[in-house]
Amino acid sequence: MKKHAVRLSLILLLTLVFLYFFLRNVDLKEVLRNLTGVNIFFFVLIVLLVPLHLVTRAARWHFLLRHEKKGVRFFNMFAGNAIGFTVTNIFPGRLGELVKPLYLAQKEGMRKGFVIGTIVVERIFDIFSMCFLLGVFLLARPLYASIFRVNPEAATSLIFWGKVGVGLASALLLLSLSLYFFKDLTLRVVSFVLKPLPAGWTRRLLSLADEFIEGLKFFHSAGSVIVFGLMSLVVWLGIVFYYWLLFFAFHLRMPFFVLVPYVFLTMVGASIPTPGMVGGFDYFSKLGMTSLYRLDGNLAVGMTIVMHAVQIVVTCLIGYAILWKEGLSLFQLKKMGETESP
Questions:
Q1: Most buried residue among 89, 158, 185, 202 by CB atoms closer than 10 A?
Q2: Is 15 part of a structural domain of the chain?
């Protein structure tokens, strides 16, 4: 209980720190004035397109799940994504990342550990995809130098975060490959570590570890890795397109590819485990808009508030509708995730 309270306190402190930097030197009257100037057509369009990434993520997820079960219902994969993001939006610690696979495993009668393993694969490729797009953007600077100049300080910051992303994804990839290709050794190590626990617990945890490693079997085929990598690029290009439309809603016209570094920075902010990505996402969004595109800070804050609010409200409405249909509550899902978490 004490450990849980300390973790919540740290998350709250982190949220407040990022919110402070997000709202620092902001004129609320100017923010409100910018909000009233939104193009209604594009605003309605971005509201309607919020579920786009849930659809593309579900299609990509199916590619991994077919190794365990054929004919997984698309709606259940879509629902798993929607519910996972809803839980993440409401509770701290990105608990939705665990609820998502557990929900689908329960709905489809699949092994929990296997489905959790596929989420690890997804996150590795999420990071690699955006790092790849960022790398292409930075290398192609001479081609768009006449229409868009990257602030040298911003470019340095992007390179730094890009290296961090590649390093993290590479470490996760190396660990995942080691777990899969040295499965017997991994299980022996896990068994040795679990020796002090009761026999029943040891058997259950060893079974979960075995299932988890099976969820990584996708790495066995180079062709599967390439196809999944391309599907991940589609997911993230769709997200870039969504943010591109947001800029149109605020009467800002810029080339599509120029939005890549901004989306990369929002991904960095979204990875910070605050409830609903509040604080981290907002700060990095504002940072990207002001440093990359030299937007006024008040406009950047207004755009970020609109974008973040639309995403949270629409996603949660979809999640709540699915929960109502399934006769489930958020607290049941929260308990499900906490039961399985270490």
A1: 158
A2: no
Indicate whether 169 belongs to any domain.
yes
Q: Look at residue 39 and give its three-state secondary structure.
A: coil
CB within 8 A of 300, min separation 6: which ones? 285, 286, 289, 290
For the chain, the distance separating the N- and C-terminal CA atoms, rounded to the nearest angstrom, is 14
Question: Using CA atoms, how far apart are residues 15 and 12, in angstroms rounded to an integer?
Answer: 5
- In this prediction, residue 18 has a pLDDT band, given cuts at 50, 70 and 90, of confident
Amino acid (one-letter) located at 156: T
CA-closest candidate to residue 128, choices 157, 165, 156, 164: 165
Work out how many domains the chain is built from and give that number. Answer: 1
Q: Answer whether 130's CB lies under 8 Å from 234's CB.
A: no
Per-residue pLDDT tens over the stretch 77-99: 999 999 999 988 887 767 888 88
Domain containing 56: what range?
A: 28-340
Q: Is residue 19 one of the residues assigned to a domain? A: no
CA neighbor of 123 nearest in space, from 271, 279, 319: 271
φ, ψ of residue 35 in degrees (nearest 5): -65, -35
Rounded to whole angstroms, the Cα distance separating 21 from 337 reads 31
Run of H or E including 129? helix 112-139
Flag whether 23 is in a domain. Answer: no
| pTM, two decimal places | 0.83
Residue with tokens 């949660």: 316
Tokens of 259: 């939005």
